[in-house]
Amino acid sequence: MKVLKFGGTSVGSVESIQAVLQIVKKSYDAGEKPLVVLSAMSGITNLLTKMAEDAAEGKPFQDDLKLMEDRHFEVVKKLIAVKYQNPVLTKLKLLINDLEDLLQGIAVLKELSDQSKDLIVSFGERCSNFLVAKIMEQEIPVSTYINASHYIKTDDNFGNAHLNEALSHQLIQALALTHTDKLLFVTGFIGSNDKGRITTLGRGGSDYTAAIFGSVLNATAIEIWTDVNGMLTADPRIVKKAFSLPILSYTEAMELSYFGAKVIYPPTMVPAFMKKIPIVIRNTFQPEFPGTVIQFESGKSNFPIKGISSIADVSVINLTGSGMVGKSGFSGRLFTLLAREQINVILITQSSSEHSITFAVHPNDARKAVNLIKNEFELELMANKLSVPVLEDGLSILAIVGENMKRTPGMSGRLFHALGRNGINVRAIAQGSSEFNISVIINNEDLSKALNAVHDAFFAELKKTLHVFNIGTGNIGSTLFKQLHEQHDFLLDQNDIEIKVVGISNSRKMGFNPEGFDLGNWQEELENQGEVADLGTFIGQMKALNLPNCVFIDNTASKLPSTYYEEIFRSNISVVTCNKIANSGDYAQYRLLHDTARKHGVDFFYETNVGAGLPIVRVLKDLMMSGDRIIKIEAILSGTISYIFNNFKGDASFYEVVKKAQELGYTEPDPRDDLGGIDFMRKMLILARDAGHAIESESVKLGNILPESCLQASSVDEFYAELLKADEFFNKMKSEAAKQNKVIRYIGTLENGEVAINLQMLDDKHPFYALSGSDNIISFTTERYKDRPLVVKGPGAGAEVTAAGVFADLVNVGA
Ligand SMILES: NC(=O)c1ccc[n+]([C@@H]2O[C@H](COP(=O)([O-])OP(=O)(O)OC[C@H]3O[C@@H](n4cnc5c(N)ncnc54)[C@H](O)[C@@H]3O)[C@@H](O)[C@H]2O)c1
Ligand SMILES: N[C@@H](CCO)C(=O)O
Ligand code: NA
Fold this sequence. Notes:
This protein is an alpha/beta fold. 42% of the residues lie in helices and 20% in strands.
């Protein structure tokens, strides 16, 4: 036989009761000989308690009573054929009348004992089981309502009664013998004492009823039907990627439940554990889902741990002092003291020097615990053998759980790596010697981030989610969004990477969406929901959201964002940027940013600072890391100027070609940065610094392309106006080159720690002669690439290739 237990939400409405009936009928038809245990309809137990309390206080309870009646009557009217309704309504009405008499009695006495409370609460289960049995009777005539208080016998501990095992077993066995062919609907939660007074079984009581019946009757399984898909890897309200666990051992279920998974209350399951009866957690509203089997063996799993659970908001007390060293009685005294005062100790850790003990308790108990300790250890405190206990509030416990941990090394390493990388400070650690639980204490405000980060770390075959905060939605930013949108499915399906852009700002507006903007429609979302942009607020909000695997992308050309990078790294957030300003400012700033990122274990990626998407920064880094020595770098690193000199031929005027370069998205937002050489200079400076030279921009020898009049222009418009006038200057340059069969190139060099950038005329023997479009070229002459340099060449400007470079940096974050 099988026990099927349905919780309150499963019998909460007409629809859910219909679902219950189908599940029961299916089991009955399959010959599983089910025994059904039902809770009260959802909300009814609370309503009953409220009515009882109201009555005792002399407040009216009639409206609530009517509400209770209506909810049951509605089910009768919808689910019982009219001709059978009357006797059922009558019996329910009699029960409700009894209840009313009791409540009236309480109102007269103005007194509510635990005994009366149990009696009143019992009406919830009695009504629901009677009702559902009657509905089922229409299809399965042997359906029978059973009031379990005649079979579950307990002591007098009303509200939390203890089972009289021997007697209950006898009575249940006798019940089974006389009802062999019946389909029983048994009230959960209630029992009675030896005088026949109704008692209740405390927290999780209906599960307990199911476990007791299952164990006495040697059930093949006890199915707990609820409103979730079994036990999950983590709290799904916090960890969106949490998934249902197919198998857990009893021990694992205990650990996960202890730390938060509220699906079952394990102490109630002990009768089932003792007989090794599997408990199956299933979803009434998704009956085809197999749910979670809790059994004796932990079972095979693809993952090293089973789940992550947590307790939010605990207080931690720390005791230190020489008085504890080698004193075996000390912790005994401490914990006996706490137990005597019914203070539940949630977690304990002791340093191996025995010099300190740290333990966690519920915040409501914390101050009392400290005072108790001060009293108990007054002598030790006076003699300075113990320091005053230190209390800290606002903490949380996170625990990874799984029996397979003990056979897998590196588990705590993985846990602490995930926490450390996300800047989560671990305050205390506890690992049971059984090795199926490692617990850490962290700050409350880090809990959500920690749960998600640790979930990612242990369920790595699942997708990695990057949370992106992007500023700048111009040429590059908007192209990046388009690319991310197009690649979304591929990244997810083929690479298990999900990129969520959760914050967007341009210079006008900013907006947030923790679920990720729809990148097919981000403009509208930002317009409609965004607020006025403010970078400080944007970054504050990014920090406050405290999401795991967070990346800040700077797709602006502004200086302001770079002033926040250090703070961002300190918040353990990586930075990806195509903006060159941070790396090309003062060397001290460059150094500080790189050092801070390293210290906090986050990434600072800026491949597109040099040659857009071409692999240049990466190549240089690899050369350096593998111990090569850079002898010389020669490069053409202005896509704009490259394009201009490659297209400044025939009739086209210099002015027109520059305009065209801007249209094609090659130029900086301010094209004077390109033509004036600043942009190129920045790139050379970054390369030189990455190659190990602590140089400043002042020391770069920068040759001009432009006539003085253009250089002096004070606005972009004025610049273009001057450019129009300078036709002759550029034509002269062009014809001179043509005369000598040469091309004009703007070339940067780094040699002996010195950077120079100059306009040169090259003949066709020079390797930089043949370039087209916006091509960049860079040649690294190194100790290992001495005779023939390592050359990278290709388009070095443009929105698509730049956004693609940012994209590549982004997916490499945390890799
Ligand atoms: N075009 C290329 O080929 C190329 C190649 C490599 C690198 N880059 C770099 O890309 C960056 C962006 O270039 P673009 O052409 O997209 O510029 P753009 O002018 O088209 O866009 C700049 C964006 O930044 C926003 N912005 C400016 N200041 C801001 C602030 N304080 N807070 C929030 N948003 C702010 C603007 O509103 C705009 O959305 C530049 O740093 C450029 O050097 C460009
Ligand atoms: N404006 C830049 C873009 C690439 O950084 C260029 O023309 O090279
Ligand atoms: Na690059």
